[in-house]
Amino acid sequence: MEDQTRENLNHLLRQYLDPTHAEAAARDIRTGERLLDLYPAPTPSPEIVARIKAEMATSLARRHRIALTFRRSLAAAAVIAFALIGLLNRGPANPTNVSQAGILPAAIWDSKDMASDDPDLVYFTGEVHRIEAQLQALEAGEDDAAGNGSVDELETELRQIETELGKG
Amino acid sequence: MSTVFSLVKKQQMDSSVELARIIAGCKSGDADCFARIVELYAGRCYGYFYRLTGDRNLSDELLSELFVRLVQKIGSYKGGTFESWLFRIALNIFHDHLRGKQRRKKLLDARRTELELEPDEAPRSDASDEQVDRLQVQLSRLDADTRELIMLRYYSQLSFKKIAEMRREPIGTALSKLHRGLKKLRELMEG
User: Fold this and answer.
1) Residue B94 contacts residue B49 (beta carbons within 8 Å)
2) CB–CB contact B34 A57 (8 Å)
3) What are the pLDDT digits (tens) for B126-180?
4) Phi/psi at A44 (nearest 5 deg)?
5) Taking the CB of residue B85, how many other CB atoms lie within 10 A of it?
6) How far apart are CA B172 and CA B56, in angstroms?
7) How many structural domains is chain B composed of?
8) Is B160 contained in some domain?
9) Are A28 and B159 inside 8 Å of each other by CB?
10) Which of A115, B33, B42, B106 could be disulfide-bonded to B25 (CB atoms 3.0-4.6 Å)?
């Protein structure tokens, strides 16, 4: 076999051996390698070379296919990513309108005279006025002869009103 | 003399430029360039595998594995001596084969012990089917490491520096092993 890329063997051997031994070692190496030249190894058959070329072409095609699939997947992923980014970056979402439910009706909440705007209070106020009038009549002696019964009745009514007010 | 030298030099340059062009083609996925690489190196790599295994069928398999791996790994070739890169892969493939063989042998031995059966026949040598040449017979008498070194040096045509780097050993060690190995081979052939 042609020696085209090797270094100067004698020079290399002289770095490790004295000149006489270096020369002998170089001779041994060259003689040994000539033996390999004299008994060449068999060469691959044309069939195996053809088969290897076919295998390489198949492997190459597979690699191309994989690379193509990878590139397509990458492109699809990029499109999806851009679409998602686009969707997410449409601007800040509109602030949600907070609706509040009042416990009290707005008319009463805004009222400056609750006693007249709340129907319940109007009712109670009326009732209180009526009882006050009856009490005044009793004090003025305008009741019937059995006057006691009216006083009891009034007391009972007053208690009921107090109870209802207490329930709220 | 200097004309001959410059002619040889020019041929070397032309071939290295051509090789660089082919490798660039391989890197871009050109099937023809891969086929060209096979034509350039199949003989040397086959000889390397054959001298290490002594088996033509196995050498076919290893050669095929080498070139398929070359397709897969060509992207990792970043310049430098192509032979160094290629034979490093070849060396790894051979070592993988040895490891696999060792594993198979262990499995087989374990199975035999399990069954408590004696093998019907002696295990067939790798070279049993081969019409082995005299050199192959004598090579098999060298230790595996020296045989590997001699074959790496002969078929890769790499410098001792590169070979020592590849084998992760000092140049002096590689030189001394090769010298002793080739001397012993010559004695065996003469004996």
Assistant:
1) yes
2) yes
3) 444 444 588 999 999 999 999 999 999 999 999 999 999 999 999 999 999 999 9
4) -65, 145
5) 19
6) 33
7) 1
8) yes
9) no
10) B33
CATH of residue B66: 1.20.140
Please spell the DSSP secondary structure of A126-148, one letter per residue.
HHHHHHHHHHHHHHTT-S-TTTH
CB of B27 within 8 Å of a chain A CB? The answer is no
Task: Classify residue B116 as left (phi > 0), alpha (psi -120 to 50) or beta.
Answer: left
Q: Cα–Cα distances in Å, from B23 out to B42, B134, B157, B163?
A: 15, 37, 19, 22
What CA–CA distance (Å, rounded) separates B170 from B163?
A: 10
Residue B190 gets the label, from left (phi > 0), alpha (psi -120 to 50) or beta, of: alpha
Q: Which of B81, B84, B82 is nearest to B92 (CA)?
A: B84
Within a 13 Å sphere around the CA of B157, how many CA atoms are in the beta-carbon half? 13
Query: Do residue A41 and residue B46 have CB atoms under 8 angstroms apart?
Result: yes
B8 falls within a domain = no
Query: How many whole angstroms from its chain centre is CA B23?
Result: 20
Q: What is the ipTM of this complex?
A: 0.77
**Complete DSSP assignment for B133-175:** -HHHHHHTTS-HHHHHHHHHHHHH---HHHHHHHHTS-HHHHH
Name the DSSP letter for residue A104.
S
The domain of B97 spans 32-119+129-190
Give just the sign of the alpha carbon dihedral B33, B93, A29, A32: negative
Chain B, window 106-165: residues with a beta carbon less than 8 angstroms from a chain A beta carbon: 133-136, 150, 153-155, 157-161
pLDDT tens per residue across span B63-117: 999 999 999 999 999 988 999 999 999 999 999 999 988 888 788 877 777 665 5
CA atoms within 13 A on the CB side of B84: 17
Written as six digits, the tokens of B59 are 């050498």
Domain boundaries, chain A: 1-41, 43-89, 106-167
